[in-house]
Amino acid sequence: RNKGVHVGAEQFNALIEDPNTVLVDMRNHYESEIGHFKNAITPDVDTFRESLDLIEEDLRKHKEDKKLVMYCTGGIRCEKASALMLENGFQNIKQIEGGVINYFKETGGKHWNGDCFVFDDRVALNKDLVETDYVLCFRCREPLNKEEIGSEKYKIDDMITKVKNYYPIID
Fold first, then answer.
1. How far apart are CA 17 and CA 141, in angstroms?
2. Could you give the CA distance from residue 164 to residue 148 in angstroms, rounded to a whole number?
3. What is the pTM of this model?
């Protein structure tokens, strides 16, 4: 076994309600800001690679006594992360089969809060897998919603959009 055990949506729901489970979002901060599961650890990282060391360090004390359940958009990052966590001594690793997108298909997003970032022109999908009104910032390439775009702090000058990390939109 060189990767976490895949679990279906219903088993995933049971696991995330178990107090002996640590739920980890394997996506980047801008993805989890749009939506995530309640009580999930959401690492404040810009890249998947950054999250691996942080998660391993933060959860080191639970290598043997907790269930580590992870999720990502489609499942690929969990495949890589679960293999690494097993290699680093974690004992009980599970991951949602097919990621958040498959979870939406199977449950309608039962325990999900918000929307789900996707890596294509749609930017984000709601629990019904319908495109939302998010767009990508020209400058930082992070998702922006209507409120952020409508903010007086959202400015486009010449060819640069100044938002988020450069000029915080929402205080």
1. 34
2. 9
3. 0.84
Q: Cite the active site residues.
A: 72
Question: What is each CA distance from 5 to 35, 55, 68, 81, 90, in whole angstroms?
Answer: 24, 18, 10, 12, 13
CA distance 105 to 42: 23
Phi, psi of 112 (to 5 degrees): -95, 140
Reading the block at residue 170, the tokens are: 């929402």
Query: Where are the strands (E) in the chain, listed by range?
Result: 5-7, 21-25, 35-37, 67-71, 93-96, 112-114, 116-117, 124-125, 135-136, 143-144, 155-157, 160-162
Nearest CA-CA partner of 84 in 95, 74, 97, 73: 95
What is the tens place of the pLDDT at every residue in 124-159? 999 999 999 999 887 777 898 888 888 777 766 544
- Measured N-to-C along each axis, helices 9-16 and 99-107 cross at an angle, to the nearest 10 degrees, of 100
